[in-house]
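Record type: monomer structure entry
Structure origin: computed from sequence
Chain ID: A
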Amino acid sequence: MSTTVELCDSSEDKDSVESSQHFKERAERNRQKALLLKKSKIVSHPYAKSENAGSIKGRQLKVQGQRVIDSGGGFLIEEDNDLEEQLLRITTEPAPIIIDSPHCDECQQEFKDSYLLKTFDLAVCDKCRDPDEKHSLITKTEAKQEYLLKDCDFDKREPPLKFITRRNPHNSNWGDMKLYLQLQIEQRALEVWGTEEKLLEEKELRDIKREGTKIKKFNKKIKQLRMQVRSSIYDKTTKASHTHEFGKDTYNEDNDTYTHTCVTCGYEETYEKM
């Protein structure tokens, strides 16, 4: 009888020892997880004070039925996954960002900012800027006439040309002028026409065509005047000569002329302004 009691007592002691060992191991694992979580808090807040960083505690959340830990650094850690491996991924430092300062195309010196860089994306420092010659400005109308560019060449072709706006000095009621960097306009013209020779050939062809159009309009005007003179001779009921009352002038961009029409008889006159 005593032998049976002794066997039961030894079995209970063995179970208690195993249970105690299990709880110790579990407590040690939890302690290691807590240390790793604490380290992740300190790394994710590198600019926080040490006394404050050590007091941060991970919050347990429940997302879609699964428990996770909020690390405080923008990451959620799953309890079922390997905590140490996740914390090692969290504490990886990002690569440093290196920003190189531009170099001037003229003097090759490094600079931080300039008027041409900020306004026209041209890497030229303020010391080398030449607003009267190399870096002069040109209006959009002049650029279209001089370099035979279209609106799409300014805005649609990549990259779009940058510009500044100024009030029209000829008439304040007109729209603002768009001023472009002439150097960039010349480069864009070479992109469109390929070579300077092709651009000059196209300008000559257009000049010839424009002169032919002027001659045709002049002949048409002479013919209209002759018809008016003849009709006035045979019109005996005319007591006084007709005085034209012209309407608003219309600008012809193709040949740089202006046209206005008489509001009474419909006579059209084309002329150039000096």
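Annotation 1: The radius of gyration is 43 Å.
Annotation 2: Helices lie at 2-44, 50-53, 83-90, 115-120, 140-147, 151-155, 182-193, 196-234.
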